[in-house]
Design a protein that fits this description.
This protein is of the alpha/beta class. The chain has 2 domains: 148 residues, Rossmann fold (3-Layer(aba) Sandwich), CATH 3.40.50; 106 residues, Dihydrodipicolinate Reductase, domain 2 (2-Layer Sandwich). The protein is 31% helix and 24% strand. It is built from 7 helices and 12 strands. Helix 3 packs parallel to helix 4 and helix 5 runs parallel beside helix 6. The chain is elongated.
Length: 266
């Protein structure tokens, strides 16, 4: 069994803590360092919430990759820094697995070119929950037959982007099998701005941000005399870790950037 040397960026975040726990419990994963904005030179066990781990903390990612042999960077931080982290990782021959959303098409094109130039893999996943990937696939299948569709996504109130990357990815997948279409009444008028949600080729996307939520999405289809609802709920952040594990294992076999976990499922 191959052993992969991993670095986790953002170990004090909620997702970062789950990723660290994943690395520590999986026998084929070896956590060699973490990247944090503070505590340079400390050990993982010195950080709040940790009681084990003689694993070094770096604030400088370039120095980390220069001093250590690293196979994969797991980055579950923020859109503001994830692109820079990916560029640093690729420049050092480290394969990034990133769960942060907010990348533009130009960002993805540029990062894919960098990965291919190095001949190594990279993964960006708007959602690491395998159930959410299945929801998107089922929604794309349904959209071939039911073309009136709206998406409602709900997340915790600390989420920075709206709509979510999962909602946008769902809409993009649906658009591959559905022609743009104006939905609702032709004389429809919003008496309160934006109450009909965002418009993606006629599909409406609605974003909810509330404390107590984690990650939830429902895709609603309407047809003559019938409706169809496809829903996925992540009840805790551990739900994303099987997908992270899959991405780490698969990224070692890739020589390009893959956007979306669905491309790694059989």
């Amino acid at each position: 069994m191959n052993t992969y040397k991993l670095v986790v960026a953002g170990p004090r975040g909620k997702m970062g803590r789950e990723a660290v726990a994943l690395c520590l419990r999986e026998s084929q994963f070896e956590l060699v360092a973490v990247i944090d904005t503070q505590h340079d030179g400390a050990l993982l066990k010195d950080l709040d919430g940790y009681i084990e781990g003689d694993i070094p903390v770096y604030t400088n990612m370039e120095r980390c990759f220069s001093e250590l042999h690293v196979d994969v960077l797991i980055d579950l931080t923020t859109p503001a820094v994830a692109k820079t982290h990916m560029e640093i990782a690729l420049a050092h021959g480290v394969r990034p697995v990133v769960g942060t959303t907010g990348f533009t098409e130009d960002d993805i094109h540029s990062l894919r070119a960098q990965a291919e130039q190095k001949g190594i893999g990279a993964v960006i996943a708007p959602n690491f929950a395998i159930g959410a990937i299945l929801m998107m696939k089922f929604a794309q299948m349904a959209a071939q037959y039911m073309t009136d569709v709206e998406i409602i996504e709900q997340h915790h109130d600390a989420k920075l982007d709206a709509p979510s990357g999962t909602a946008l990815k769902t809409a993009q997948l649906i658009s591959e099998v559905r022609a743009p279409k104006t939905q609702g009444h032709s004389d429809e008028e919003e008496t309160l701005a934006h109450c009909r949600g965002g418009d993606f080729e006629g599909m409406r996307i609605h974003s909810v941000r509330l404390p107590g939520r984690v990650a939830h999405q429902e895709v609603l289809f309407g047809g003559e005399g019938q409706t169809l609802s496809i829903r996925h709920d992540s009840l805790n952040r551990a739900s994303f870790m099987p997908g992270v594990k899959l991405a780490v294992e698969q990224v070692m076999t890739l020589k390009t950037l893959v956007y979306g976990l669905e491309h790694l499922l059989d």
